[in-house]
UniProtKB/TrEMBL annotation, chain A:
<feature type="domain" description="C2">
    <location>
        <begin position="36"/>
        <end position="171"/>
    </location>
</feature>
<feature type="domain" description="C2">
    <location>
        <begin position="180"/>
        <end position="307"/>
    </location>
</feature>
<dbReference type="InterPro" id="IPR000008">
    <property type="entry name" value="C2_dom"/>
</dbReference>
<dbReference type="InterPro" id="IPR045052">
    <property type="entry name" value="Copine"/>
</dbReference>
<keyword id="KW-0479">Metal-binding</keyword>
<dbReference type="GO" id="GO:0071277">
    <property type="term" value="P:cellular response to calcium ion"/>
</dbReference>
<dbReference type="GO" id="GO:0005886">
    <property type="term" value="C:plasma membrane"/>
</dbReference>
<dbReference type="InterPro" id="IPR002035">
    <property type="entry name" value="VWF_A"/>
</dbReference>
<dbReference type="GO" id="GO:0005544">
    <property type="term" value="F:calcium-dependent phospholipid binding"/>
</dbReference>
TrEMBL record, chain B:
<dbReference type="Pfam" id="PF00168">
    <property type="entry name" value="C2"/>
</dbReference>
<dbReference type="InterPro" id="IPR000008">
    <property type="entry name" value="C2_dom"/>
</dbReference>
<feature type="domain" description="C2">
    <location>
        <begin position="1"/>
        <end position="112"/>
    </location>
</feature>
<dbReference type="InterPro" id="IPR035892">
    <property type="entry name" value="C2_domain_sf"/>
</dbReference>
<protein>
    <recommendedName>
        <fullName>C2 domain-containing protein</fullName>
    </recommendedName>
</protein>
Length: 586, 153
């Protein structure tokens, strides 16, 4: 079973699904990526919405692999799986086969989408490919016919939080009948594949637009689309509507390179008159690329809109003009850039101990701890959020508080330490939170009323204390509550005071109450929170989601909360022009 | 004990003057009751954007946080005014900002406070929002090592 190609490693690589030509590897890359559904992706792209998750390319290499072949060394290949919630493994991709090596560095990269809101467990299996299959495309290899060399597991966010984005794992497994041998190690390097991080910020203005409304003036807005395949136009961006103005000026528009392609890709800029019926009337359009818009700005020129006239097929040049007041090109760092440069997310929990939850000893209480092991809503929420965020926290020490309960000294506290200690409020790990929660249920009597302001103040205090340290931390406070707020004004005041700090507040509502107040705090309708002193929240730091039915479906409601977090973090660092540690200033 | 304070007037929103939206020429002015600042500071006039003026003007001045009991109630007034074609300045709205909101009760000196306040017009009605940022520049003597603390940019 000698391998006559043993001297010709390069030839071997080319013969066996090795270094692919660019087009082929692109198709394999899409096929490799199980998390990205082409049809769904196209649906969103056609509506101008781009996916927020980043694509990660993983490069694998191994050392000290087990030698399975008799006369030469093993011919290893690695396969990567994603472990789903039910424990099943879903294959994401495979590397090529490298001939005759116990220390292979595979060239074929495996792509996976980074999703912040779930824990993505990656499982790697390394196989020795038998000579019989050496000329067969890698994808068609049946793994059970190959020799298993070892397995390794890790979580994707673990890799991303390392400074050099590499992790080295020991291979384990039952190889050669249960003898525990040293199976070697597998190294995984992760890289974000973002074409370019350039972003163009453009200030548009128009003059002399045509009047399309009867009794007032037009309400113009711009829509920018990208021309795809020389005919179809995919909308990428829309400005806000300026009411009743024929010389409108819009707020700056931010276009990422992902949206506009290259600086020379032609973009269509259309100006519409907003109608409440939804049937917006076209005022005019023009075609310019990003590079041409930059030139218009520098030379302070204006371009006239044209109106496609149906009668002659010719276009009518209008008096209305488009002016570019300002054009700035910036580099925008992504969430992963910040994380791998050393930014940490610190998790804090606050649990509702008000009497409306019901006596914890009765089964219909929201705090009932089921002896059969089924988690209650509180435990479920803590697990789901804590499991994801813990990877972004280096010391895994989480402050945990309860509110609305009567502690052992007889008084009702709205920010007592869940661990029962009088000195420190931190617990270690998500398991620490669970233990502290269970013991607090035995020692603390449920009381009331429901007030968030104390825990928000504590969280804000912790966040502001960290400002004096040299390691950049962003805090995430999870509040799990079952009821209606007693002191809305006090809570709003505390939230407004905290809105300028590196803090996000996630509120999960359990039980069946009416959570309308929480939706006001969430401020998704655009009404910024206003405190009693007249101060307005600097930014929207609250996200709320009601957890109604735990058992419905794969996608959990809490994931929807977590999806917003990278965006909130980015809005904080970008407004203050804070770059990843060590990254060049723009 | 006077410190340098840097105020950046960023923008204002939803300004209404005499029942109509402000068309143009709005600017912001920052002042304190009492003599804490050397002179009232003004941003440039935004001639183009109507009721959503954006200034992005950095203004620097000296600031003495004052002594004794005065600090507790000291207030900075932020006004948004608009200049009419006749050249007169009308006050569109005023916001009352307690000085302790940015003098380090919640965060350190040197921290960039991005603040927003509600504007009230002369008849006491709500009239828009003003956004600005304030930073008290730390004393040179406090910066021992060259290490700039991370969030204080």
């Amino acid at each position: 079973m000698g391998n006559c190609l043993s001297g010709d490693v390069k030839g071997g690589k080319q013969a066996i699904g090795g270094v692919q030509q660019r087009p082929t590897s692109a198709t394999t890359a899409i096929a490799n990526n199980a998390a990205l559904n082409d049809a769904v992706d196209f649906f969103f792209r056609s509506r101008g919405q781009y996916p927020l998750f980043s694509q990660i390319e993983l490069t694998l290499s191994a050392s000290n692999l087990l030698d399975c072949d008799i006369t030469s060394k093993s011919d290893p290949m690695a396969v990567m799986y994603l472990r789903k919630k039910d424990g099943k493994l879903e294959e994401i991709g495979r590397t090529e086969v490298i001939l005759n090596s116990l220390n292979p560095s595979w060239i074929e990269k495996i792509t996976v989408s980074f999703q912040f809101e779930v824990v993505q467990t990656l499982v790697f299996h390394v196989y020795d490919v038998d000579t019989r299959y050496h000329n067969v495309p890698v994808k068609t290899l049946k793994l059970k016919d190959q020799d298993f060399l070892g397995e390794a597991t890790c979580v994707l966010s673990e890799i991303m939080t390392r400074p050099n984005r590499t992790v080295t794992l020991s291979l384990t497994g039952n190889v050669r009948a249960g003898v525990n041998r040293n199976l070697g190690t597998l190294s995984v390097l992760a890289e974000e594949t973002v074409a370019s991080k350039t972003v163009a910020e453009i200030n548009f203005r128009c003059v002399n637009l045509d009047n399309k409304d009867l009794f007032s003036k037009s309400d113009p807005f711009l829509r920018i689309s990208r021309i795809v395949e020389s005919t179809a136009a995919v909308p990428i961006c829309r400005t806000e509507v300026v009411d009743n103005n024929l010389n409108p000026m819009w707020r700056p528009v931010c276009l990422t390179m992902q949206q506009f392609g290259t600086k020379d890709t032609p973009l269509v800029i259309e100006c519409f008159d907003f109608n409440t019926s939804g049937n917006h009337e076209l005022i005019g359009r023009t075609e310019k690329s990003v590079a041409e818009l930059e030139r218009l700005c520098l030379q302070k020129e204006a371009v006239n809109f044209v109106y496609p006239s149906l009668s002659h097929g010719r276009k009518k040049i209008l008096k209305g003009q488009l002016i570019v007041d300002r054009f700035v090109e910036k580099v925008q760092y992504s969430f992963l850039d910040y994380i791998s440069s050393g930014f940490e997310l610190n998790f804090m929990v606050a649990v509702d101990f008000t009497a409306s939850n019901g006596d914890p000893r009765t089964p219909n209480s929201l705090h009932y701890i089921d002896p059969s092991g089924r988690s209650n809503s509180y435990q479920q929420a803590i697990m789901e959020v804590g499991e994801v965020i813990q990877f972004y926290d280096s010391d895994k020490r989480f402050p945990a508080w309860g509110f609305g309960g009567r502690t052992s000294d007889g008084s009702v506290s709205h920010a007592f330490n869940l661990n029962g200690a009088s000195y420190g409020d931190e617990v270690v790990g998500v398991e620490g939170i669970m233990t502290a929660y269970a013991s607090a249920l035995r020692n603390v009597a449920l009381a009331g009323p429901t007030l968030f302001s104390h825990v928000v103040d504590r969280a804000a205090h912790t966040a502001s204390q960290s400002l004096s340290q040299n390691s950049p931390k962003y805090y995430v406070l999870l509040i799990i509550t079952d009821g209606v707020l007693t002191d809305m004004a006090g809570t709003v005041d505390a939230l407004v005071r905290a809105s300028d700090l590196p803090l996000s507040v996630l509120i999960v509502g359990v039980g069946n109450t009416d959570f309308r107040q929480m939706e006001i705090l969430d401020a998704d309708n655009g009404r910024r929170l206003e405190s009693s002193t007249g101060r307005i929240a600097t930014r929207d730091i609250v996200q709320f989601v009601p957890m109604k039915d735990i058992h419905s479906g794969q996608v959990s409601v809490v994931q929807a909360l977590l999806e917003e977090l990278p965006g909130q973090f980015l809005s904080y660092v970008r407004t203050r022009n804070i770059n990843p540690v060590g990254a060049p200033a723009i | 004990m006077s410190r340098k304070i840097e105020i950046t007037g960023i923008s204002a929103e939803d300004l209404v003057y005499k029942k109509r939206r402000v068309k143009k020429n709005a600017y912001g002015a920052f002042d304190t009751a009492g003599k804490y600042m050397k002179q009232p500071m003004r941003t440039s006039v935004d001639e183009i954007s109507g009721n959503y003026p954006m200034w992005e003007d950095k203004l620097e001045t000296e600031f003495s946080p004052g002594k004794e009991a005065v600090t507790a109630t000291s207030v900075m007034y932020v006004q948004v005014l608009c200049r009419s074609s006749a050249g007169e300045d009308h006050c569109v709205g005023t916001a009352r900002v307690p000085v302790k909101d940015f003098t380090g009760e919640y965060a350190l000196e040197g921290f960039l406070h991005c603040l927003s306040y509600r504007l009230w017009d002369e008849s006491g009605c709500r009239n828009g929002i003003v956004n600005f940022s304030v930073r008290i520049l730390p004393d040179k003597s406090h910066l021992k090592s060259g290490l700039r603390l991370f969030w204080l940019r």
